[in-house]
């Protein structure tokens, strides 16, 4: 006689619990009062403004912060989609800052590449957007999965979003920090090569003089 294998079905209670836990928000955000606000847009910090001044450590409200650079083509392609997010989530706050002008913040929050998006609750980073497909839909899914807040369905990327406030056109510029690092490294290697005693063996005639 051949044994009969019967499939084991999960209990309905366990299945329901797993579904509820998957849908539970990871960050409980305090939604801001939108009464009296006519225009929902993001704010771009200048070089003299500190991010921590805009984040309240004693509050549980949530802020989505974008680290970008104006000469990064990935930041430029993300710009119109990020510009439309405040209209999709009016109860959340959205900030953007030039990572090259706020290098200390980039180091503090581990921003080694741009664009980089962090979700803050109060002044504490809670989640990082890691998708390579940076569109309005993937950003809305990220916010919903983290906070449980649903986006407005009638929001789409418009021509105004391509114009600003976050620039979608590349700006020519020089990364002075990178240039200084390359020049310093090249100078150090040249100095170390000249000072190294073993370099004499590479110069014609030095080996014969040593043998004599």
From TrEMBL:
The alphabetized list of GO BP terms reads: cilium assembly
Record region (Disordered): 1-25
Domain (Thioredoxin): residue spans on this chain: 5-148
Q: Which Pfam families match?
A: Thioredoxin
> Which CDD domains does the annotation name?
PDI_a_ERp44_like
Species, as recorded: Erpornis zantholeuca
Cellular component terms (Gene Ontology): cilium
Q: Which UniProt keywords apply?
A: Membrane, Transmembrane, Transmembrane helix
Report the transmembrane regions from the record: 176-194
Q: Which InterPro entries match?
A: Thioredoxin-like_sf, Thioredoxin_domain, TXNDC15
Note the Gene3D superfamilies from the entry: Glutaredoxin (3.40.30.10)
The name on file for this protein is TXD15 protein
């Amino acid at each position: 006689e051949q044994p009969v294998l019967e499939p084991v079905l999960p209990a309905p209670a366990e299945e329901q619990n797993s579904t509820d836990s998957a849908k539970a928000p990871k960050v409980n955000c305090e939604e801001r009062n939108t009464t009296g606000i006519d225009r929902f847009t993001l704010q771009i910090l200048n070089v003299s403004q500190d991010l921590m001044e805009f984040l309240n450590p004693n509050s549980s409200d949530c802020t989505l912060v974008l680290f970008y650079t104006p000469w990064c083509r990935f930041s430029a392609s993300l710009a119109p989609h990020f510009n439309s997010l405040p209209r999709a989530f009016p109860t959340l706050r959205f900030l953007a800052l030039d990572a090259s002008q706020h290098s200390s913040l980039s180091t503090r929050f581990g921003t080694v590449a741009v664009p980089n998006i962090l979700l803050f609750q109060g002044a504490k980073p809670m989640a990082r957007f890691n998708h390579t497909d940076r569109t309005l839909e993937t950003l809305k899914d990220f916010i919903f999965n983290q906070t449980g807040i649903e986006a407005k369905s009638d929001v789409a990327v418009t021509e105004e979003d391509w114009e600003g406030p976050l620039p979608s056109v590349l700006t020519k510029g020089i990364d002075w920090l990178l240039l200084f690092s390359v020049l310093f490294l090249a100078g150090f290697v040249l100095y170390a090569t000249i000072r190294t005693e073993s370099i004499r063996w590479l110069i014609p005639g030095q080996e014969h003089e040593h043998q004599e």
